[in-house]
DNA sequence: GTAGGGTTAG
């Protein structure tokens, strides 16, 4: 039967429960502790003091005192619990155990270890039992104390306490938390039977550490042994489905759950929504969210994350508004999802606003928020701010380092990227798969061919990271950038990686930039076969023909595009001015200040022509006169956006422009000169990378 | 009398 929550006045509560006298104070103390009813507990405590045999010495017996320690510990009053404990003339193992559990549940795990050490040396008759060891082992889990945890395991084995179910489960959990899955499995496989707690702990540990195959094996044991799942099992198994990304399994588990009488609490619902989101079924996740009667911060964050993961960044951000309307306070995970959504939109102002919100709510100290901030600033073109957040962080993990290294890499700042990598090694953090993608791409930016191979063949091997296609693609980029095109092609043909269209396109782009049109055309054929709908390839190919003055070739490509009904995606650029993102499409005059903008572009072009700018009319695909070709180039979207930025921002402010396609040669040359002419820093994020234009130069050193 | 497992980020 559920226990009613007590009214504010405990006397009224006692009356309501038909308790007219406190005959059994200990039972009431237990009730108060279990329902976390501090007021009732205090009342009983007062009663005990008044009615104790010797009221003046407050001499309450050991059992009653133990109940009181438990009461105060459970109600979050650990200091009072400690005072009581310290005042006890005689203590027993339960006194120690109750206080230790209190410290553990109040987040003071290191106090537990201290108390345990003290207890072993104390005059009290304290032979640690299964309760004590369960609590102490748990505190090793939460405090990350590997050494002490293993010592406890030794003691537990010697003393025979390992045969207690709680102790075994605490050990499985401890090894899982301390990332020792071999240790966890060895405890899991001991003769002592497993209950649902053991299964849940081992499943969770395997999931957390990415051992999905082993998790599935345990799951199949559970199924064959007909172990009854509880709601925690479902949460964990949905987590496994999410990590595997297999919708089929997810649906099976969801069906199984619906057939049982499992209570679908906030945990379970969030786990299901997360599963659907990660398996690409956003609609299912959204449906569950809409049907939820009570939504907590995790439900909101989960549905935002599902939208973010499926590419609906703006929608993810919009949930924040509704969440606030329902008076739900965001947490660090909420800010991480919001910042990452903002990052994917390169929405610097919005991201900075979120940064301010997070700062105000005190979440910027959390590592996941710091990581998301680095990502947001880097992807929004403000690499200096990313570095500022990075430098201020007290705790870093591999994601932190990776975000900064790849941030620098995307901005073409290879030296800085490698410096951060060196700091990562010095700090003793282990680089992973993602780290080396960023490191190798930094090597490519710097043209460090030998160093790149050294990282791939020596360092990665030493650390035990199996290179993947992303790493091999970086090597292709590295060779290509250094102009070693034949070597790059040979490399692709000799290494048996699963070369994808990205890798071939890297080589193709290199052929274009190094004007090796023969190899370029051959590679382009491969790329077109792999992705016949990619406009970029046709344009590159056509440009290559144009640069080689092979007009037949240009015609051929144009015909091919017509036949395959491939349309050029319009170039779109945008620039944030105050609260608004101003969007420009090439040759578009829908902006209210269009006339002034065109005038500004014209004015800039005249001035940079005096500095030596020559429009790259060969790149224009239209069948028109040269003069008209120049017009087509003049009003490319990024030129419009930059002109508007120059018109609307103070002279010293950098201009940040985002573009959907790769920047064309002509714009690249023009923007370099505009940066010199106007003495501005112009940062353009195109489909591939960032270009920092300053003093007539670009950070990509004209290779992109 | 005191003890064990779960949701959202990359």
TrEMBL record:
It comes from the Eukaryota. PPR repeats lie at residues 195-229, 296-330, 397-431. GO terms for molecular function: RNA binding; zinc ion binding. The keyword Protein biosynthesis does not apply. Keywords: Repeat. It holds the Pfam family PPR. One of its GO terms (biological process) is RNA modification. Residues 612-704 form the DYW domain. InterPro entries: DYW_dom (IPR032867), E2_motif (IPR046849), E_motif (IPR046848), PPR_At4g14850-like_plant (IPR046960), PPR_rpt (IPR002885), TPR-like_helical_dom_sf (IPR011990). Coiled coil: none annotated. Belongs to the PPR family. PCMP-H subfamily. NCBIfam families: PPR. This is DYW domain containing protein. It comes from Parasponia andersonii.
